[in-house]
Amino acid sequence: MSEKDPxxxxxxxxxxxxxxxxxxxxxxxxxxxxxxVMDFIQVMPGMPKAKVRSRVVMSPHHVKRLLGALAENxxxxxxxxxxxxxxxxxxxxxxxxxxxxxxxx
Length: 105
Prior knowledge:
Elements (H helix, E strand, L loop, with lengths): L15 H4 L6 E6 L4 E7 L8 E8 L1 H22 L24
């Protein structure tokens, strides 16, 4: 675990096995009063099955901070590279994720 140095800066270590990252093209987010669970999934076009590549669990406070950081970085990206095109949620090659029972009677 990293510790803060005397100047108040955080020393962050990036292990080699984590440094390459994982590819995900779908995120499924669920929450409870205490935490948010974000599953990052790799979906292949035309395939009915997909694998969760990574799961991140965060407190609501930290999710809100992440949301702000993402918004700020998207804004910076678009200022540099132009608007990111949103293709909407309907991609015919990508199946909708199974979300389990919906509690319908």
